Amino acid sequence: xxxxxxxxxxxxxxxxxxxxxxxxxxxxxxMRLKSKTPAGDPVTFEWLAKVTAxxxxxxxxxxxxxxxxxxxxxxxxxxxxxxSWEALLDGCGSKVVKERIVHFRNPGWLIDASGVLGEPAxxxxxxxxxxxxx
Length: 134
Hints:
Layout: H1 7-34, H2 45-52, H3 56-64, H4 71-81, H5 85-89, H6 95-105, E1 110-111, E2 117-118
Antiparallel strand pairs: 1-2
């Protein structure tokens, strides 16, 4: 059963997803503009659409960061452009996941600066019930 999400947590996730899509789109555009067809011509939306069996409008939306894509679609684009995974995914890390990993690496109770035993501060949007205890 899926757990309910509060609006703040859900909003952070959506903003994070959009940021990743925008960064991935910029990387995709950069790779497309750097690439050449086998004939040595610049790669156009139409050529890329024919080679990858995608609609040219979808590729435009991917480049603008307006739409996400499956790993299979990303693999087709990568292969058509002849670029590396590293080049396409550069800078596409999830801020939400990074914040949560830091929190869950140090779960439990902490002693604050005044010597009082208490809970560590939670990252914004992290549900209190999802915490580990000591």
